[in-house]
Amino acid sequence: MRFHPLDKLINLHDGYRRRFKIDALDILLVQQGEQRYLLEAQCPHKSHSLESAHVDERSIECPLHHYRFSLADGHVIASGEQPCRALRAYELVYEGNEVGLMLGD
Predict the structure, then answer these.
(1) How far apart, in whole angstroms, are the C-alpha atoms of residue 95 and residue 62?
(2) Degrees (nearest 5) of the Cα angle 2, 3, 9?
(3) Terminus of the chain with fewer CB atoms < 10 Å: N or C?
(4) What's the domain count of the chain?
(5) 41-73 per-position pLDDT tens digit
(6) pTM of the full predicted structure?
(7) What DSSP letter does each residue of 10-24 carry, written as one string?
């Protein structure tokens, strides 16, 4: 496993949202209030980007069809007529003054 830094802690703030691509992994780092989350960057329903999604203290809502997912673990909170799998959530890792994730090589 290897640490992949995403950003420096000093850059993070309430409302922060940034998309990262690491090989085939497409992820979105979000800070809402004091909490930070690392989620799949596209809605699993129709693969729409979540960069402009509405985020509140507990959920992220896809702007295309309004599927809503838990920030904490990605489970589906609200969906449309079509079933949708949960949004993948990843564990954040803190190393020094950076936040990132661990990936196997």
Answers:
(1) 31
(2) 180
(3) C
(4) 1
(5) 999 999 999 999 999 999 999 999 999 999 999
(6) 0.92
(7) GG--TT-EEEEEETT
Structure tokens at 33: 């209030």
Q: Which residues pair with 72 in a beta bridge?
A: none
At 64, list the tokens: 């295309």
Least Cα distance to 91 among 70, 69, 73, 64 occurs for 73
Residue 3: both structure tokens together: 């640490």
Which amino acid is located at 40 in the chain? E
- Give the residue among 9, 3, 4 at the shortest CA–CA distance from 98: 9
CATH number reported for the structural domain that contains residue 25 in this entry:
2.102.10.10
> CA gyration radius for the chain?
14
